[in-house]
Amino acid sequence: MIEVARKYVFDFDSTLTRVEALDVLAEMTLHGKSSKDEIIAEIQHITNLGIDGDISFTESLERRIRLLKAHRDDLDGLVSELRQKISKSIAANKEFFEEFSEDIYVISCGFKEFIDPIVAEYNIPSERVYANTFTFDEEGNIIGFDEENVLATHNGKIECLKQLDLDGEVQVIGDGYSDYVMREAGIAHKFFAYTENVHREKAADNADHVAPNLDEFLFVNDLPRKISYPKNRIKILLLENVHHDAFDNLSEDGFAVEMVKHSIPEEELIEKIKGIHVLGIRSKTQVTQKVLDAADKLLVVGAFCIGTKQIDLEYAKKRGVVVFNAPYSNTRSVVEMAIGQIIMLMRNIFTRSTEIHQGQWNKTATNAHEVRGKNLGIVGYGNIGKQLSVLAEAIGMRVYYYDVADRLALGNAKRCATLEDLLSVSDVVSLHIDDNKANENFIGEREINQMRDGALLINLSRGFVVNIPDLAAALKSEKLGGAAIDVYPSEPRSNGQFITELQGLSNVILTPHIGGSTEEAQKDIASFVPNKIMDYVNSGNTVDAVNFPNIRLPQQNNAHRFLHIHKNVPGIMAHINEVLARYNMNITGQYLSTDNELGYVITDIDKDYDKEVTKALKNVENTIKFRVLY
User: Fold this and answer.
1) Among 482, 282, 263, residue whose Cα is nearest residue 368
2) What are phi and psi of 354, to 5 degrees?
3) Which one of the listed residues 201, 268, 491, 520 is annotated catalytic?
4) What is the CA radius of gyration of the chain?
5) Residues 124/129/132/133 CA torsion (nearest 10 deg)
6) Rounded-to-10 torsion of CA 607, 608, 609, 615
7) Residue 62 annotated in active site
8) Which residues have C-beta within 8 Å of that of residue 48, sequence separation ≥ 6?
């Protein structure tokens, strides 16, 4: 098969750079002038009219230069500014321009005075840059442009490319309709609408291919590139109305992100998840075995919450799907709510508030107590339990805690040997235990009877840990003096009607699973979980994964990275290394982490290697997943 020679024709403004150079020049020359914003808006409007072909380019150029009032001396500053505004994926793939410089041309309706010094740094010489040139008066003021230059005329790019008469397949990469016309005229074979910086509908609608970045263009053409797989091809589905910062963080890194405000039932998710690489959920969406079997491309699940019971973690691991959660991000929010509920229940605030709402004035100190000097029993002394312990002590409470794990006490907190010991000594019991199935009905009739008469119960952990009928009976009999419940054994998938037998009971605070639902917590989660997702997708790191061997990798430097997930069976590492040796791989680093069922090995190798090695590694027996990063 004979390879077809290719020539690559790049636009400059909003393609090689993130900006329109004349807009930047206007910002500089109009600095400090009261009419600056108005003039710049007019220049941008004229620019867009010319790019979209709504006015002739000659008219566009003339009108903009009249508004600029620029000087030759301004051009050095402009070049300095443009050096800081190279398109992100262009800068990342500088090696492509250096390696293929003989096949790369710049055809721009901008000006050589500022284009030449920028592209020279990408190994593109002045003789392969075709652009306009300014004209100056004797004092150095920019007064116009060379009107004899073909690029100063309407559709000048067509005539310029015709005159070049390039051999082979000609591909045009640009953001505007004025770039597309070279393809429309039949003198270019393909037009790539470059949308990394600006998406122009007219160009995109007529393109052979839309390239959100240079990685996509290089991938389509199977050219050397900085990353192995364009991020815009990695599809991320975020469910349950996660904080919009998550969308922003992932989109800004280049991924294709879709947001859905609600959870999705299993049958619908089975269809929706096909082709999805990353799934983001909160607590309601169930990631079952059937869902994971349908997830043909899934790499990672991000739980934008603490709990992971809604995900079949073991089966996800068997499928090579990594799961991350947010174990710390909403800790403070939950703790503050617990403190608030303790005070509200101790003072019987909720009862008094309800009476006022009903038009009844009942000023009384009956059943209203300070929290100072009272005993708080914390069941589950993890991140939330410990922080609650510190804050409760700060307002004068005596703290006791019980945990199945041996955890160090903070401050003056006292550890109880048994749950019964804690229940019998506490004025308030606050539950902060995990979603282990063994914790179902952890607090029932027996445990309630072990509590002090008139004690208060708070549950901000998991709905199934409290037997609701037993709690209701204890409140009605006044065995307990009150309760605050935020989680329930069964919760609706979306907002709407909800019924519980705790409704209407005295001194009972009922909230709809909002313990961690503060703007601050959700914003924190929207940063923490996407960072974990991006770290895994971009580099292979699994630090803080809840179902996978944790491994922290060094930064990838001038190497390709093989990620191999496999069943942890005897001899598999020998097979993997035998394949690497057979293909003469020069290994610069190898990192392995395992658990009883799964092994995860990362191998960094020199950039030049036989591509057949990847097929051989995928075919190693007991391989679960394999991918390449570079």
Assistant:
1) 482
2) -60, -40
3) 491
4) 32
5) 60
6) 60
7) no
8) none
For the stretch 525-570, pLDDT in tens is 999 999 999 999 999 999 999 999 999 998 877 788 999 999 999 9
Strand 587-594 to 598-605 pairing: antiparallel
Residue 269: which of 259, 257, 277, 279 has the closest Cα?
279
Which residue among 513, 560, 564, 566 is the active-site one? 513
Does the reported pTM lie above 0.85? no
Which amino acid, one-letter code, is at 95?
Answer: E
Give residue 388's Cα distance to chain centre.
30
Q: Are strands 455-459 and 398-402 parallel, antiparallel or unpaired?
A: unpaired
* Contact status, residue 624 vs residue 565, Cβ threshold 8 Å: yes
Residue 238: partners with Cβ closer than 8 Å, 6 or more residues away: 246, 247, 250, 257, 258, 259, 260, 280
- Cα gap 147→314, rounded to integer Å: 70
**pLDDT tens, 80-104?**
999 999 999 999 999 999 999 999 9
Going by C-alpha positions, the residue among 182, 183, 174, 148 that lies closest to residue 58 is: 148
Distances from the Cα of 238 to the Cα of 59, 309, 534, angstroms = 46, 18, 14
Based on the residue annotation, tell me whether 244 is a catalytic residue of this protein: no
H/E stretch holding 192: strand 190-194
Type of residue found at 353: S
**3-class DSSP state of 612:** helix
- Written in H, E and C, the secondary structure of 258-325 is EECCCCCCHHHHHHHCCCCCEEEECCCCCECHHHHHHCCCCCEEEECCCCCCCECHHHHHHCCCEEEC
- CA 292 from chain centre, in angstroms, equals 21
Decide if 339 contacts 310 (C-beta within 8 A).
no
Catalytic residue among 6, 432, 462, 566: 462
Burial (Cβ within 10 Å: 0-12, 13-18, ≥19) of residue 619:
exposed
* Residue 513 appears among annotated catalytic residues: yes
